[in-house]
Amino acid sequence: MLHGRCDGDALLFSRDLTSEGDTEAVLALRNALDDAGLDLSEELAQMSGPLATPLRQILHIVERLTGLPLHRADNR
Predict the structure, then answer these.
(1) Percent of the chain, pLDDT > 90?
(2) How many Cα atoms occupy the beta-carbon half-sphere of 67 within 13 Å?
């Protein structure tokens, strides 16, 4: 969901994702994440200074091996 590849509403309705407690707060967090357009890989790379390029390559390999999206689909 962080990278915009999964529909949070669909995950909730299919019960693949559950939410307990303050549903309004969870919805506000989801909307904030959607609006922020975060890219986990790029955020980490920008913080790594001169190691940014090798880190991007490593994250791409990790993403490919695990199948977990670590970057926004619209950034590649």
Answers:
(1) 24
(2) 0
17 close to 8: Cβ distance less than 8 angstroms:
yes
Q: Please provide the distance, in angstroms rounded to a whole number, between the alpha carbons at the two ends of the chain.
A: 17
Separation of alpha carbons 38 and 16, rounded Å: 22
**Residue given tokens 């909730």 in the structure block:** 12
CA contacts within 13 A on the Cβ side of 75: 16
Q: Is 38:72 a contact under the CB 8 Å cutoff?
A: yes
Rounded distance, CA 59 to CA 53, Å?
Answer: 10
| pTM of the predicted protein model | 0.56
